[in-house]
Amino acid sequence: MSLCLGAHLFISKGLPKTIEEAHRLELCTFQFFSRNPRSLRDSKRPEKIKIPFDIFFLHSPYLLNLASPEEDIYNSSKRALLEDLIWGDSIGATGIVVHPGSHRGTGREKGLLRIIYALEEIINKSSTRCKIILENTSGSGTELGSEPEDFGFIIDNLKDRSRIGICIDTCHLFSAGFDIRTKEGIEATFNRWFSIIEPFYVMLFHTNDSKGSLGSHLDRHTHIGEGEIGEEGFKNLLSFSLFRDKPLIIETPKEPPGSDERNLKKLKELSPDF
Known about the structure:
By secondary structure, this protein is α/β, with parallel strands linked by helices. It has a single domain (5-37, 47-270), classed as TIM Barrel (Alpha-Beta Barrel), CATH 3.20.20. 35% of the residues lie in helices and 14% in strands. It has 9 helices and 10 strands. It has an 8-stranded parallel barrel with strand order 1-2-3-4-5-6-7-10. α3 (108-124) packs across α4. It is globular and about 45 Å long.
């Protein structure tokens, strides 16, 4: 089975140019920000056009925090995600990737409950095929979502789970303390995650090497094979059908020029199907 490879692409020059770039890179899928990644207020949208991909994803802005104890940020986050979810559905997006958020010192359970209440509200106010896809995190500070138990708690306490998916980021997984460099480590990691959440919730992988060391909680992506996971780590990951059979989207640095091509080529070379 051939890999479904994708990349995070920019839309600053308009969606037609983004689609051209996706075709130039011979992508199976791609991802782009749902709005300005540094703002919850800017909802300026690119023009609506037909996007000729069966599977593509949005990514929510970095400031979105569904676990925030601050009422204004919490409400702004809910409003922004609802707007982006509905807009994503209108252009045929498969899902919108969302970082769960940070409890800001109020405690894990309170933060997770705020996420659940927010998701319930958004789901009840919308009817979309576009899913809300929760992404694992590096677990820095009071950030939630670095452990499978967080996702298990959220999913188990939602009334409607059909609108929820999971995205697993390899850099975040490694920097959160899961050693995915060896086949034994990958198997142990997958066994733990999927003893808590069903594998069918996983809709895609963000495929990034890590500048940070194992358990560093550092969210710093780098080029495939050039970080702490390394070529051998990705070769081992690609030997697992669970990893290989999902869309793999790179969020690796764009510099130097040609980096997307180089990272995509490296993943192909490391795959047993290449």
